[in-house]
Design brief:
With 343 residues, this protein is an alpha/beta fold. It is built from 14 helices and twelve strands. It folds into two domains: 242 residues, 3-Layer(aba) Sandwich (Aspartate Aminotransferase, domain 2), CATH 3.40.640; 88 residues, Aspartate Aminotransferase, domain 1. The strands form two sheets. Strands 1-7-6-5-4-2-3 form a seven-stranded mixed β-sheet, with helices on both faces. Strands 8, 9, 10, 11 and 12 form a five-stranded antiparallel β-sheet that branches. The longest helix is centred in the last third of the chain and has 20 residues. The relative contact order is 0.17.
């Protein structure tokens, strides 16, 4: 009954096997291995982007911060949702790697930014000429931190606003697989066709040990990313252990199958939670994360039975929680949790 995070799950067997296979013999270092060629080819195929550049790092924070660094100069701003991971959970890494760019939070219901609100944020930034911070880039998250999912049409509406101000767009896709599994959209439609310039394509939360791909749809920016990755200490010497994970993750659509399990278990959990007296969902449940609010004492019953999740008190005396399912969540886990809640 582990619902604290999809980070708590282990490796999918296919990823573990790929790492074991990569461990045999010797291979060129720093990304010159054959596995990186295979990884790049697979991502270009999946995204229908034959010219896209691909770089691997080990963490989502590195993927996001380095991506923003190639899009955003130090004297400019990154517009993101007020609860975006880059704003609340990366310890200032975007500001650090951009050498001073400032995050401008944009409010929005259920973790999403509305085009009108983004345009309003643009209008109040950069008006001071040389004396003020300039507009820099937009960072979106899909799946959002509220567990909701942008459709390609919604992303395109936001990138259109960004383009009207000549701003590039980054997409934090730590749970990109879950967003694709939830919408059925193509990877291309969710990214470059919708106006996204750089994607952080997550693997760690969905069955990998630790690997994220930065997919750069404008190859002219690739060399700068590589230099920043090296200078920032994120170029692995034994790079084959990153590409082995990512190639196995992509082969045969494993990334989508794993995300499909996580989403299906979230659907099963959300359906079962409707039977809990007094429970409401703070946000629509659209992928593998949800935020139920329930009467005081509900969490204690589940935790006493061994369930693990994040919870907090609410001003009205009720309790809030975050529940996250993963590729390794089973129907038995879900049903046991629901039984524990029932007491």
């Amino acid at each position: 009954m582990q619902f604290a995070s999809d980070n708590t799950s282990g490796m999918a067997p296919e990823i573990l096997a790929a790492l074991a296979a990569a461990n045999g013999g010797h291979a060129p270092s720093y990304g010159a291995e054959d596995g990186m060629l295979r990884t790049t080819a697979l991502l270009r195929e999946i995204f229908e982007a034959p010219e896209a550049a691909v770089c691997l790092v080990a963490t989502g924070t590195a993927a996001n911060a380095l991506s923003l660094a190639v899009l955003c100069p130090p004297w400019s701003t990154v517009f993101c949702h007020e609860h975006a991971h880059v704003a609340e959970d990366e310890c200032g890494a975007p500001e650090f790697y951009t050498h001073g760019a400032r995050l401008v939070p944009v409010m929005g219901a259920h973790g999403k930014i509305a085009p009108a609100d983004l345009a309003a944020a643009f209008a109040t930034t950069g008006a001071g000429g040389v004396h003020g911070m300039q507009r820099g880039a937009v960072s979106l998250s899909n799946v959002t931190e509220a567990g909701t999912v942008y459709t390609p049409t919604e992303i395109a509406a936001l990138t259109a606003v960004a383009r009207s101000f000549e701003l590039p767009v980054h997409l934090d896709g730590a749970r990109f697989a879950n967003a694709i599994a939830a919408t059925g959209a193509s990877a291309a439609d969710m990214t470059w066709r919708a106006g996204v310039d750089v994607l952080s394509f997550g693997g760690t939360k969905n069955g990998c040990m630790g690997v994220e791909a930065v997919v750069i749809f404008d190859p002219a920016k690739a060399w700068e990313f590589e230099l920043r990755r090296k200078r920032g200490g994120h170029l692995f010497s034994k790079h084959r252990f990153l590409s082995a994970q990512m190639a196995a993750y992509l082969e045969g659509g494993l990334w989508l199958r794993l995300a499909g399990v996580a989403n299906a278990m979230a659907g099963r959990l959300a359906a079962g939670l409707t039977a809990v007296p007094g429970l409401t969902q703070k946000h629509p449940v659209q992928a593998n994360m949800m935020f139920p609010e329930w009467p005081a004492g509900t969490a204690a019953r589940a935790q006493a039975a061994g369930a693990r999740f994040y919870g907090w008190g609410l001003p009205d005396g009720r309790e809030g929680a975050r529940l996250v399912t993963s590729w390794s969540t089973t129907a038995g886990d879900v049903d046991a949790f629901l039984s524990a809640l029932a007491g």
